[in-house]
Amino acid sequence: MPAPRSATLAYVAPFVAFIGVMAVEHYVAPNSQILYPIRFLIVLAAILLVSRPYIQLRPKAPLASIVVGIAVFLIWVAPDALFNYRHFWLFDNSIIGSASTSIPADMKASFWFLALRTLGSVALVPIIEELFWRGWLMRWLINPDFEKVPLGTYAPMAFWMVAILFASEHGPYWEVGLIAGIAYNWWLIRTKSLADCILAHAVTNGILAAYVLVGGHWQYWL
How far is Cα of residue 116 from the mean position of the Cα atoms in its chain? Predict the structure, then answer.
């Protein structure tokens, strides 16, 4: 028996809204970020109206989660810094795209856009992705009545499928996305806490945002 529709919506709706509005953006205004505030507000509304009762924000191991988040950030940027292989065909092709930002030059100088983009990366994306990938899909693949599956339950097929799909979501950064997916999956299994995964993910995204803004590494914001 599948889980109640309300529970499924709580875990899935914000992610679907995020991807759906992004698809509309690319169709209506390709290579533009002018609709990003609308995406931000729609996703925030989905979180507050649908998902809030299911969101855990009290981590069991906050310091360790911060360390995991820092480690994932280092994994994300180290290969490019050390080997500069991002434009090899495996990571730069017509299927997965290329490691170049879609943010227009004028918006790189817009304080309000950059503040909103950073806030979205740190406060919204970790919640919607952890709800979807590790809160819902990792359990649903074990049992469609996913609420009967305790958070952090390990099943090889579910573990690796979520890691691979999480990697595919990150386009030209798929290989570090795979490692990140494995790390976050492992951390959920270790802590049994979605809040710890949200915190780790937020730390990763927060440091990456600082790396982009301070160092001008815009290619990490696709």
Answer: 16
pLDDT at residue 34, rounded to an integer: 80
Query: 130 near 199, Cβ under 8 Å?
Result: no
Decide: 128 and 169 in contact? Cβ < 8 Å. no
Residue 152 to residue 14: CA distance in whole angstroms: 21
CB 214 within 8 A of CB 103: no
pLDDT of 1 over the 70 cut? no
* pLDDT tens digits, one per residue of 132-179: 999 999 999 999 999 999 999 999 999 999 999 999 999 999 999 999
SS (H, E, C) 86-127: CCCHHHCECCCECCCCCCCCCHHHCHHHHHHHHHHHHHHHHH
Contact 70, 187 (CB under 8 A): no
Distance, CA of 52 to CA of 82 (rounded, Å)? 41
Rounded distance, CA 150 to CA 45, Å? 27
pTM > 0.90: yes
